[in-house]
Every structure is written in structure tokens, then in C-alpha cells.
Amino acid sequence: MTGVYISIPFCAQKCTYCNFASAVLPRSLLGPYLAALEAEITSADFGDPPDTVYLGGGTPSGLSPEALGRLLAGVPGRPWREATIEASPGGITAEQARHWRGLGLNRVSLGAQSFVPREIAATGRKHTPTQVAAEIALLRGEGLDNINVDLIGGLAHQTAAGWRESLDWIERLAPPHVSVYMLEVDDDSRLGREITRGGARYGARSVPEPDAVADFYLEAVEHLAAMGFERYEISNFARPGCESVHNRKYWRLEPYRGFGADAHSFDGALRWWNVETAAEYVERFRSGASPVAATEPADPGRERFWVGLRQTAGIEPAPAEWRRFAEPVRRLTEDGLMERAGERLRLTPRGVLLSNLVFQEFLA
């Protein structure tokens, strides 16, 4: 069944590590953006009702219950099998949680990123570790116990001891799902730009070396496994039965519809995506133009390798796909980055650490 992604690119502050199409935008833009978003959703032809909804951004948890209700009213299929809202720790209330549950939301993804105060402060976030713990308890008390917690390895001022401290907090809080991301150094984030240009702002010169970040990831894999988590995708760990139903659609090439600025869609045959900024999205709506920026044919055979291989279970290529990619598969297997188990193909532990190099072989 189809999944629905709704983009809310508004943030109270822009975190230093963030390379998403979100920003601290004028409040005067929020009303027109939500009107355009509501119109895009209500005019969509969903076909079969979707079974998952994901509110991301940005900070969708900053929207009022009334605004969320208007957006979700246009999405058929309620009660959805899984409906996630991303939330920034530090301001979640019991009343807010009750409203979320009443709207059909049943999963919360908390962007904690770290449980070390100095690391948190360097990102621009305002919460404390104890606030995260209190809000997880609050969510559980309101019946929202399907919770994900994000961690990032490679933040400014991060040390091996600090990383273990964050993992210890995860063990104490015992969420059913954890996402572990490694810092992406590119020009799409303030910290990334500062690192590539040799600057010192945002703690750029205190970011751990790549080898240390790789060690953090390996330590997370080991510690989370000891806590009962299974890694089912490169960055995602869950207790059995608590995997993200919505996110799995991306890796399994199942259809999804994206609404809002920079949202992407896939129907099995085509991929398309909306204009990147909220301002341009609103302008398209006001002029009566489509928000779609571009459309391209999908190539499931190629995409199965660079999307599906993110899964720990790997993929089962069709005979034609084995033939099509025989040479890169042979080379990557000989290099110890991939392995074959019967008709399945998957990354080796070394291949996971060098996954971007592997995926490049199937993007050309």
C-alpha cells in the first residue's frame, strides 16, 4: 500500500548539522504554506487508501492541533497502520500528545541527536538529556509508546566517552526504535561547509576524525544488539516488530506520495519531486501552477541495488539483474564489500561502512 509523506520545513532554529530543505522561515509564510499544502493533499488521487503517514521536515511538532487536523483530514485510510510525527525535544506537552493521538498519530520520532550537553549545545538545539527522558515518559503515559530516538555520530566536541554516554541513555530509556546517523559533511549544512572550508565556526575543528566516527557506528551496532535491537537498515535499529513500516517502503521500492516543499514521490514507474523551498511552493500554488519541479522514469532494477542494499537482509535480484550488474557485483564481492548467500545479495560489515562507494557502482 502507498505511504504518505508530508513536509513541514519550518524550524525554530536551523541545526548546524542539518542538510535538509528546512529553515527558520518567516511566520507570515506559514499560513500560506499550510493552505497550499492542504490544497495539494485534498486534490490528490490516492487510489487505494494509504496505510502509513509520516510528518517530517522541519519541525511538524510545532504545528497546532488544528493545523495538523486540517492536513490529516485530507489523507484517507485513518486509522493508519503507522502515522509518525517528527518532534524536537524540549517542548512536548501532555495536551499536545493527547491531540496527536486523537488525530491518528501513533508514532513519534524524537530528534535527540545526543545526550551530552556540550554536543547538544554545539548543534544549536536547546533540550537537555533529562528533558528527553521526561518527554519519553510523558508520551508513554499518553499511550504513544512507539518512539524512535535519533543519534548522530560525528558531532562537534563528540568523544568516545560521550558517545558511550549517549548509548547508555538509550539503554536506560529503552525506546523500541533507534536511528543512528553519521554526520554528512557537505555544503548543504552550515557545519559541513565550515569543515570543508577549514573554518572554526560551529565547532568544526572539534569534529572527530572519520575513523573515530566509523568506530562510533560499530560500537552502536554492538551495544544496541546487546540491548535487543536488530539492525534492519544501515541507520535503523529496532526491537523485533518495531521496524518503521513507512520507511521500509523507500528501501523496498513500494509506492509513496510526498506533499509539500522538496517532497518526493514514487509510483513504481515514475519518480517526481516538488520545488525545494517553501516560498517557491507557495508561489506555485498562488499562480495555479503545479508544485512538481521534475519527473523522471524509475529504473527499479538499478534502484533495487542502491536502495535495497541498505537493508541488512539485502536483496534478491532477478535473473536479468544478476546479468546486468554481473561486473560490479563480481568486483565488489572480490573486494569484500558484498557477499552472496544463495540468491540473496547483501553488504558485508565492511561494505556497510563504505556503502556510499558501493552504491556509486549502481548509480552510473
Structural overview:
By secondary structure, the chain is of the alpha/beta class. The protein has two domains: 3-251, TIM Barrel, CATH 3.20.20; 300-360, no CATH class. Helices cover 40% and strands 20% of the residues. The chain is built from 15 helices and 14 strands. The chain has helices at residues 27-42, 65-73, 94-102, 117-123, 129-141, 160-173, 190-196, 210-226, 245-251, 278-287, 300-308, 319-324, 326-334, 349-353, 355-360, and strands at 3-8, 52-57, 82-87, 107-113, 147-153, 177-182, 230-233, 236-238, 256-259, 264-266, 270-274, 292-297, 338-341, 344-347. The strands form three sheets. A nine-stranded mixed β-sheet has the order 7-8-6-5-4-3-2-1-9, with helices on both faces. The protein has a three-stranded antiparallel β-sheet with strand order 10-11-12, with no helix packed on it. Helix 1 (27-42) runs parallel beside helix 2 (65-73), helix 1 packs across helix 10 (278-287) and helix 6 packs parallel to helix 8 (210-226). It is globular and about 55 Å long. The model has no long low-confidence stretch (mean pLDDT 93).
Summarize this structure as a short list of keywords or feature phrases.
364 residues; alpha/beta; 2 domains; nine-stranded mixed sheet
Strand order of the largest sheet: 7-8-6-5-4-3-2-1-9
- In DSSP terms, counting alpha (H) and pi (I) runs of 4 or more, how many helices? 15
First-to-last CA distance:
30 Å
CATH class of the largest domain: Alpha Beta
Poorly predicted runs of 5 or more residues: none
Overall 3D form: globular
**What is the typical, i.e. mean, pLDDT?**
93
Structural class of the secondary elements? alpha/beta
Helix content: 25-40%
Major sheet details = 9 strands, mixed
Would you list the SSEs in sequence order as H and E? Answer: EHEHEHEHHEHEHHEEHEEEHEHHHEEHH
Report Rg: 21 Å
Strand content: 15-25%
CATH architecture of the largest domain: Alpha-Beta Barrel
- Tell me the count of domains: 2
CATH level 4 superfamily of the largest domain:
Aldolase class I
